[in-house]
Amino acid sequence: SYRKGGYHAVRIADNFSxxxxxxxxxxxxxxxxxVWLAYDTQSSKYVALKIQKSAPQFAQAAMHEIEILxxxxxxxxxxxxxxVRLEDSFKHAGPNGQxxxxxxxxxxxxxxxxxxxxxxxxxxxxRVKEMSRCILTALDYLHRELRIIHTDLKPENxxxxxxxxxxxxxxxxxxTPILERPEGNTNEGVSVMSKxxxxxxxxxKRAVARISERRIGIGDGMGRTPKAPRNLxxxxxxxxxxxxxxxxxxxxxxxxxxxxxxxxxxxxxxQSGYSFAADMWSFACTAFELATGEMMFAPKNGxxxxxxxxxxxxxMELLGKMPRKIATTGxxxxxxxxxxxxxxxxxxxxxxxxxRLLVDKYKFSDADARELASFLCPILDFDPEKRPTAEQCLxxxxxxxxxxxxxx
Length: 408
Ligand code: ATP
Ligand code: MG
Ligand code: MG
What we know:
It contains 13 helices and ten strands. It is of the alpha+beta class.
């Protein structure tokens, strides 16, 4: 992908935006971009520099993301709404073309990594509550104030907040071999140069390690997974919603098929039209996953049925039968349901309930299971019109009641 129209290759200490930003280390990548930790010489802070692929369709997507992120930043001057802040955007010319770049507030590891590091066991409920409050604060802001649908809410797209500004020892733009090249004495030749290179490499490694240590996260920031789960006590559990590449204004839906499979709402599968409530469904799936360590729905296709039909069957087994009116009125309803509202190919469903699942499979106490289910079940209503809004969820006793008392 590092070719014309694709990613821009970055080396440590590369400059962006006329020297304002200095690349420190790679943080991640996606289908559209690579993301680098960069030092902002103007504000003396770190930013996450998202460098988009250069081909027109990627530039278009970046412009859309910048438009959405700009509206988000403009409406939240105090940066208190648990959504990633866009600090700056600019173009960068490289050998593969013109790349749109976004300087984003620097955040920590994703909640997906947090779940992984915790060995897919689920997090303590008081932490789940704290993160749920953050995510709902973001959704309430996006939905009610801006009328934006995120459309791809999931643990991977929620990042922990960094509370420490790791700005003590950034790699500067003078970080070049030239400075340490020996004068004269040319007969030492190659071996001296390779020694210097080795030393420089070590220096870069140390600098990166210093930065990584200060990054709030669970891994060592070098892409290695710790052998034992880390003690998470020191971590601030606030988090922010990121990745607005697929977000849209509620009055101009982007696509018929939105959301990542496991977090996809029933109205999206059935193509009955979607709105803010589709994000709420994804939120409930995400909260369940934080609490249990496992995805709520992980459908697979099988003999004679599709992934979609398996997904619908799983939803009904956990949440009860879908009301006939909801099941039969989507543009794609006829592919899955007969006119009585029964699935065409998966006939015998094993009905259960969320609180039984939490007790039997995930070993929750009866009280914890009941309370979590009472919070999640209304958000998992098959009728999107009946789902509570983010604002209403924030008022639910599960989030309001003293979070200490429900802990064992
Ligand atoms: P996708 O294929 O998921 O749409 P993308 O190209 O749009 O990918 P993002 O998902 O925005 O890119 O970012 C890619 C990765 O970079 C993230 O998964 C995360 O690891 C890292 N990242 C993104 N934004 C930040 C940030 N603000 N702070 C720290 N790391 C970030
Ligand atoms: Mg992403
Ligand atoms: Mg994206």
